[in-house]
Amino acid sequence: MGIVLITGATAGFGQACAETFAAKGFDVIITGRRKDRLEALQTQLTQEFGANVLPLNFDVRDEKEVAAVLGNIPEEWKAVDILVNNAGLAAGLSTIDEGSISDWDAMIDTNVKGLLYVSRTVIPWMRARTTGHIINIGSTAAKHVYAKGNVYCASKAAVDAISQGMRIDLLPYRIKVTAVHPGAAETEFSLVRFKGDEQKAKDVYNGFIPLSAQDVADVVYYCTTLPPHVCINDLVVTPLQQANAYYIDKN
Ligand code: NDP
Ligand code: 8X3
To answer: Into which family does the record put it (predicted)?
Structure first.
């Protein structure tokens, strides 16, 4: 089937994507900072689906680590067909005058610069083969700014713009670029945003049925199943009860 590289596969969308692509017969490169989870996922994907799995333990914020670990994988794994730039986070939820600078750094360094570092390593491999598909995970937060979302929304708006730029620049190499923008999905996202406060994280999803990680993985996979001449450029997917980034009908 091919090789898919998924960043941030130790939880949420990335893990569900890894399971979905492995189930379809892909060889899977999984990445993340939590080594124990990568190893557990490797075992699961191998046993459950007979998949070939390459786990890579690095922090996408670390340019040198990205180049050293990802840049030096065995040649046969460099024939990446699909790159899912998924690793990301929201850190905190506060007005701009009270925002934490370390939270801002974490979001910009991960969601924007990390995506760029990984892409900069992988794109030349795709370019050399004149084929490939990059799927960048944006957010409804890329499309509309919500209260206290300031820097997170800006980081995802950057993902939106970078996706548009990639699409133009990579057309000569017939590399597809798709931005998938999910709305509210119950993963570890809110637990990370609220720094381990389980109640606060759970409350985000009260009163409506959020997307699941699998819902998003199914959409990502679908985008890769279209004929070679067809590309979904930009896709927004929300729970039925969510109209946009800031309006959810919780009745
Ligand atoms: P999770 O917190 O469940 O998963 C995030 C993944 O990203 C983890 O595997 C984590 O791995 C990885 N990650 C985070 N920071 C780094 C880093 N510095 N280096 C390497 N890997 C990292 O969240 P989701 O699955 O919900 O989020 C995935 C993406 O989807 C993010 O970009 C998020 O912004 C976006 N999104 C989420 C929505 C939601 O409502 N859940 C909606 C729209 C978009 P580890 O900690 O092991 O490094
Ligand atoms: C994550 C979902 O609604 O917090 O992108 O922006 S939201």
So the answer is: Belongs to the short-chain dehydrogenases/reductases (SDR) family.
Which residue ranges have their beta carbon within 6 Å of ligand 2? Answer: 90, 139-141, 184, 189, 245
216 by Cβ neighbours in 10 Å (0-12 / 13-18 / 19+) ranks as buried
The ipTM value here is 0.99
Exposed, middle or buried: residue 151 (CB in 10 Å: 0-12, 13-18, 19+)? buried
What CATH number corresponds to the domain at position 160?
3.40.50.720
Query: Is 152 considered catalytic here?
Result: yes
- Domain total of the chain: 1
Q: Is the pTM of this model over 0.90?
A: yes
In tens, the pLDDT along 206-231 reads 999 999 999 999 999 999 999 999 99
